[in-house]
Amino acid sequence: MTVNEYVKEKKLLHPEKKRIVMCDARLHSLFRKKTINKSRIHNLLEDHFAENHEVSEDDNVRPDSEENLGTLNPCKRQRKTGAEKKSREKDDPFASIVVENLKLVYLGIGVLKEMLKEAETFEEKVTGCFVRVKSHPYDCRSESYQLVQVKG
Question: Which domain covers residue 135, as residue numbers?
Answer without folding.
Answer: 99-150
